[in-house]
Each structure stands twice: as C-alpha cells, then as structure tokens.
Amino acid sequence: DLYRKVFVFRKDPSDAYVLLRAKLEQPLQNFTVCLRSYSDLTRPYSLFSYATKAQDNEILLLKPKPGEYRFYVGGKFVTFRVPEGHGDWEHICASWESATGIAEFWLNGKPWPRKGLQRGYAVGVEAAILLGQEQDAFGGGFDVYNSFSGELADVYLWDVGLSPAKMRAAYRSLSLPPAVLAWKSLTYEVKGDVVVKSWLRE
Q1: Which of 38, 49, 63, 39 minimizes the C-alpha distance to 142?
Q2: Cα 170 from Cα 158, distance rounded (Å)
Q3: Which Cys-Cys disulfides exist here (predicted)?
Q4: Residues 6 or more apart from 113 whose CB is under 8 A from it?
Q5: For 140-170, what is each residue's pLDDT tens digit?
C-alpha cells in the first residue's frame, strides 16, 4: 500500500525504472491509466510504458516537451497540448475505447478535446509494464534520454473506461473502483536508483 507515498527517481538521466505486475486475462478493448508526476525536466520523458512482445508501444504516456503529452495505443499516438505546468504536480488520466477509437485525456481533473486512435484494436495482455523508462523492446531497449527524473505517485490501470465522475475522483484521490493496477495494493519491483518516500505535499 503506497498511500501518501511516492517513487523518487533521483538521477538524470537514469537507467532506473519500476516494474509493475498486473493480472490481465484477456486483451484490453478499453482501459484507463491515471498517475501523478512531478518533474522539472524539459527533455522528453516516459511516464508509463506497457509493452508486449508484438508491440513495444502498446500503451505509452510520454511527455516529449513542456506543454505536450503523447498518448500511444498499439504504436500509434495522438498529441494533447496543455498549458505549461507551474512547477506543481500534474495528474493525468488517459482512457481509450476500441469500439469507437475514442481517446480521452484528462489533466488535473479537466478533460481535453477527445481524439481518435486505433479503432477496433485490442491491447495484448502478456505485458511488461514500466514506470520511468520507455521500452523499445519487450522489457528493455531503453534510451536514457527518455528516462523520467522526479516523483511519481497514484498510478492506476483499469480495464474499463472511467466515467467523468470517476476521472475527477481519481484527481481528488477519492475512492475508486477496483483496478488491475492500484496504488494502494501495488505489486512492484524497483530496478536501480528509485526510492520510496513520503509525499511532501498537503
């Protein structure tokens, strides 16, 4: 249970990452990923990387530069342009629905205009799920200049699209539906220089 805790990725650039374990039975037709990040990096960095043997960018949340997020599903991506942060935590949620190909992106509890991505696709289940690195091969192939440096918290993955009310609840750290990856019952393995510390914000 990592409630009120964070992962601190201390070095920049870094070869460290956190490996997450999720039990997924069947390919994902819908999903939602949420997390909080705190970083002063201006170069590209990966937040959440979900790779299968068939596709290294099966699900990827990447921040290529300040004021922009990229959301990948099955190797294709859409870009969401956001106001540049003011040196504070950023909470993001990204959800995707195969039937419509609709990609949603929420920043700090607010939805951005929806975009179309990979309609009819299914996300594979035999996955390596990493925080802090972008996989260019299954479980590896890292470029340190896409590595994350800073603090990460409140990481969740659901095998459903969350409702707007639940998206806002995730931002406010309220009670949430059962998830395949949940911050309060996370199975993880730290690889390299990552430290679990108490959260410094109120």
Answers
A1: 49
A2: 12
A3: 34-93
A4: none
A5: 999 999 999 999 999 999 999 999 999 999 9
